[in-house]
C-alpha cells in the first residue's frame, strides 16, 4: 500500500463505526490490531488518500467496504469526487508516458495503461496517468507500494504502518502527493506566464500613454519636431536623436524598426521635419521620404554658376541678394584654396542641409569645404603639377567640360580637344573658340550669340576673341568633370559638336570631318 501521513482524514470512518470530528493526528496508542476474519486475513483498512482530505475520496479497490461506492463503477463512484475522477488533471496527450513503470511491482501484472489485474479485491481502476519520469519527486515510489494490502503482516516486514486504539491503520509517512500538488504546480506556472503577459502588455500600454517605460508610440504623431541626422550616423545614433526630440518613445523601438527594413540604409544626413510621438515605423518612413527633408535641403546642381547658387539661397533663406553677393566678393572668408582666383568653380555640386539658425556665410563655407574634401580625394594639386598645370586651370577646364557636354563618358574626349587646341602648333587654333565661355560672361545660356558678342575682345571670357583659357572657371564642376580634366582621353581630335536631337557628341580631327558634322548638326535643327 502507499504510505502516508494521516494528519488529515475523511469525516466518515472507512469502517462505518463512528464519525471523526476533524483532522486526525497520530493520536492514541499504536500497535492495536483488528481481529482476523474466518479465512485468517486482516480486514481491509481502506484508509482515505491523504491527497484529497475533504473530497470524500476512497480507494476504488475497496468499494464494497462502503455503500457510497457503487459496484457499477469501481473507479470513483462518489459523486463528490467527480471533478477529480473524470479528469485527473493531466491528459495523456500532454505527457509522453502516462503510466507508472512496472519495475519491481510485487504481485501485479499490468494489462494496459494503468489497469490493475482482475484478481484484485474490489473493482478495477485506471491509473491517473502521472508519469514518474516526468515528475520524479511527486511519483509513487515502487518501494512503498504493495499490491495486496490483505496480506500485510507485521511479521513479514512488508507492513509499514501501525494501528491506533480504534483499530484504524496509521500509515507510514508518505513520500509524495498525487494529482493535487501537480495541479497546483501547473497552475502556478500558468499564473506566472499570464502575469508576464499582462506585464508586457502593461509596458506597451504605458509607452503609448506616455509612461516612463514606453517602448513605442502609435500612429503618425502630432506637432512639429526638427531632427538633425549627423553624417555617418548609425541606426542607434539616429534613434537617440529621435528619442531626445520626443519623436519616438524609445531608442530600441527605432533600432528594431530600422533593422527590420533594409531601406533604412538609405537615410541621408541632414535636417528633417518630423512630428512628436510618432511610432518607430512612421518615423522611419518619414526619414526615407524626401518631403520630410525638403524644407532643409539645398541642391547645387553640376554646372551651376555662383550667381545661380546665390539666387537659390535668396529664394530659400530670404536673405537679400546684395548681402549674398557681398559675401561672394570676399571668397577668402569662405576658406577657398589659395590658388583660387575667384569663388567660381569652388562651390561643390551636392545636396546640402540648411541647418536651422545657420548664417549664409556658414552655408557657403560648407560648399567650399566640400570642394576641398572631394578634390583632396583626387589628389588634385599633385596631379595638376604632374601635367604641367595649376589646380586652378584644371578647375577651369573641368568647368568648361561641364558646360559643353552632358554625358560623363564624353568628358575625357572633350578634355583632349581642349588640351589639343591649347597646345596646337599648326596655327589653326590660336583660341579655344568655346561658346560656353562667352555665354558665361554675358549670362546668356540660351539662344544664339550675336556677332558682336563673339567678336568682343574686351570680354576676357570670350575665347573666340581671346587666346588661351579664361581667367577662371565658368561653372561649378562635378566630380566626373574634374576627373576628365585630370585624365583626358588619348586622341587627335580638334572639333566636337553635340547633336541637338540625339544629344550625342561627335568628334572630328580634320576640317572636312568637321564640315560633315556641322551639316548633320543643322539638319537636326541646330541654330549655331
Question: What's the topology here?
Answer:
Layout: H1 82-86, E1 162-163, E2 169-170, H2 179-208, E3 222-229, H3 235-244, H4 251-260, E4 270-276, H5 280-288, H6 290-293, E5 297-299, H7 306-317, H8 321-328, E6 351-353, H9 360-378, H10 380-386, H11 391-404, H12 411-422, H13 435-442, H14 451-454, H15 479-486, E7 495-498, E8 505-508, H16 511-523
Antiparallel strand pairs: 1-2, 3-4, 5-6, 7-8
Helix pairs in contact: 3-4, 4-5, 7-8, 11-12, 11-15, 12-15
Overview of the molecule:
The protein is mostly helical and 528 residues long. The chain has four domains: 1-177, no CATH class; 222-295, Endolytic murein transglycosylase (Dna Ligase, domain 1); 297-377, no CATH class; 388-523, no CATH class. The chain has 16 helices and eight strands. It has helices at 82-86, 179-208, 235-244, 251-260, 280-288, 290-293, 306-317, 321-328, 360-378, 380-386, 391-404, 411-422, 435-442, 451-454, 479-486, 511-523; strands spanning 162-163, 169-170, 222-229, 270-276, 297-299, 351-353, 495-498, 505-508. The strands form four sheets. It has a two-stranded antiparallel sheet with strand order 1-2. β7 and β8 form a beta hairpin. The longest helix is centred in the middle third of the chain and has 30 residues, at 179-208.
